[in-house]
Design goal:
The chain has three helices and no strands. The longest helix has 28 residues. The relative contact order is 0.08. InterPro entries: CopG.
Length: about 80
């Protein structure tokens, strides 16, 4: 496992701590979970962009639009 040091504004770090506690998680676990979601979204986007390059571009971009909308909703739920 890799240790990563990040610099955040104090208020952001405090809000992340509060969010983690509200979900019964450590801040490390919360950041790990959020990072995994971001990487999964990126992988999915790249997959559909590759499909768009070889297939129906409008259909693939439509799928990406729906995924973006879902991602925005997940972010709003946090």
């Amino acid at each position: 496992m890799t240790t990563l040091t990040i610099r955040l504004p104090d208020d952001t770090a405090a809000r992340l701590d509060s969010l983690a506690r509200s979900r019964g998680l450590t801040t490390d676990k919360l950041v790990e979970d959020l990072s995994a979601r971001a990487v999964a979204a990126w992988d999915t986007e790249n997959h559909f962009r590759a499909m768009a390059a070889t297939g129906d571009i409008k259909q693939a971009l439509g799928i990406l639009d729906r995924l973006d909308a879902e991602d925005r909703q997940v972010g709003a739920d946090l």
